[in-house]
Amino acid sequence: MKKSVETKENNGFKLWNYFKPYKFLIFCSVILLILDIVFTTISTILSADFLALVTEREFESALKKLITLAVIVSSAIVFNLLLSNIIEVLVSKISSAIKVALASRCFELSSKAFSDHNLGSFTLRILNDPNTIVSCVINIEWQIASFIQCLVIVIYISFLNLFIGLLTIAIVSSSFIFITLRKRLRERDMKVLNNIREKNNSLITESIKGERDVKSLYMENSIKEKFTLNYNEYNKKNIKSNCKRNSLNTMRNLFAQLFKCVSLLLGVIFVDRALLAMASFLFFYSNQGRSTNLANYLSYIIDNVTDIKISLKRIRELYENVDYELESFGTRHLKNVKGKIEFKNVEFSYTTYKEIPIEEQLKKEKFNKKYKIKERVATREIIGKNQVFKDLNFVIEPNTTVALVGKSGCGKTTIANLVAKIYSVDKGKVLIDGVNINSLDKDTIRRSIALVNQSPYIFDMTIKENLLLAKPNATDEEINNVIKESALDEFVSTLPEGLDTHVGEGGIKLSGGQKQRLAIARTMLKQSSIIIFDESTSSLDNFAQNTIKESIDNIKGKATVIIVAHRLTTIKNADKIFYLENGEIVDSGTFKELYKRNKTFKALFIAENI
């Protein structure tokens, strides 16, 4: 069930779970931090005593005080070093653990979530937000320590003279007003800036991945112009936001300086009237910046808390099943899937959305008094639906090879995605061995159904490592068998490093046919009961196409095979062909039967072979 309001306790992502394994290190860091606070504070007070002894010309006592001071300062430096090293470990390990968890979480999201959002919305949440959270938590730890140190000194100054102490409190109080305004401004602006950064990040990633197209079509200037426009928008809003915050900081500093001047003036008057000792005045003079720093550290703490809240909210969006929809599975497990597929009265539509500008979202935000949070507002609105199937029915028997053919847009790939449960039906049922696919658990579906896309993704690993992703415990014999069955053996034998050859990001070092054969080998190694080939030969030349066809023929009879065909010559050996038009199966039969009785099918085949 989707939630419209984020509750106080989010059961999906709990930050403490990632800090918990390092409780001992955190405890050590807190102890060291306390020691650092104590020793630094003592050293400051000892400095005051040292000044008093020097002004009273008690040099022997002053020397002893100086030696003690040197020991304490040296100890504080050592504690600080140990603390810094522990924090380095904590930041690295905790942020890495969160990133791994978020990357894994993305695989639990529906394909619809990926199609509805740009790449930047995922990469920034996975790569940037964990660093922001952990760094801010550590920064807060340091800043609280510094705040306490300043607070102790301010209290000590207040004891030296009540009037100066009251003025110091006034400085901090007035600064807090500006800090509150700055916090509200930062929280609002960060939402806008993060939204723009996501779009910029997506454009950069896409441009790098598509560098060959950019170069071959001479699109460098157009892409550069896009970069410039996007970053101009970001810079414009970022500069405006920073200027506002700087103005508030300047006003706060002006008030602080005014109070400091009044405090110093009072100090001089009190010294002149013997109401304040010279040593105390010197101590006050040398530490007068502590009151301003007290306000600054409080400001930094609030800024970091705000950044944590923003990043946590963005991460939790991946867990809420609202904007980022989750995959849904049932609980029924089938040990051995035979591979029978049936569509019963299936309806399916693609929904088109329009993104609501971030500025409009912020205007609609309302505070929920019950949960003491801001209510979630819609980030997009539905502007239309494109119905693909209205009442689709067909049956595919186990261990048969079936082809789906028809003009582009007729629904072939949508059927493949519904069988693989990449998408879910709006109405009707998709049955696997007589069981509703929505009732099956994730293990049954993912283990039993494999989909080879038109452009399969090959990872920046070796050929062998790419294969082992599908079956980590595969033997060398199993790997060699699938290499042979996928007609990849001849190519691998020409490589100096054989299966240990790195293929580059996205398999950039491989040809289109080699990528397809590697993807097929990976699928064969998985040994699924249902294998779907989504236009796997449409972009290949005739030689590569025949090699892929040979690879697919090697699977025939061993699994239920669905071929989404662009070229009709590749599906001559299919046991059955479904011919689709406008989301309906208008004819079915063997290749010879359709060629003989279906004029449109025959015309498509003839046109393809002219």
Summarize the structure.
The chain is 60% helix and 12% strand.
Task: Please tell me about this protein's structure.
60% of the residues lie in helices and 12% in strands. The chain has 20 helices and twelve strands. Helix 6 packs antiparallel against helix 8 and helix 8 runs antiparallel to helix 9 (278-286). The radius of gyration is 34 Å and the shape is elongated.
The helix tally amounts to: 20
Instruction: Please give the CATH class of the largest domain.
Output: Mainly Alpha
Rg computed from alpha carbons, rounded to a whole number of angstroms = 34 Å
Helicity level? 55-70%
Report the average pLDDT across residues: 82
- The total of beta strands comes to 12
Shape: elongated
Calculate the terminal CA-CA distance, rounded to whole Å: 55 Å
Proper CATH architecture of the largest domain: Up-down Bundle
Task: Write the SSE topology.
Layout: H1 16-19, H2 23-55, H3 59-106, H4 111-116, H5 119-160, H6 162-209, H7 211-216, H8 220-272, H9 278-286, H10 289-316, E1 341-355, H11 358-364, E2 367-368, E3 373-374, E4 380-396, E5 401-405, H12 412-419, E6 427-432, E7 435-436, H13 442-448, E8 449-452, H14 463-468, H15 476-485, H16 489-493, H17 512-526, E9 530-534, H18 542-553, E10 560-564, E11 576-581, E12 584-589, H19 591-597, H20 599-608
Parallel strand pairs: 5-10, 5-11, 8-9, 9-10
Antiparallel strand pairs: 1-4, 1-6, 2-3, 6-7, 11-12
Helix pairs in contact: 2-3, 2-5, 2-9, 3-5, 5-6, 5-10, 6-8, 6-10, 8-9, 15-17, 17-18, 19-20
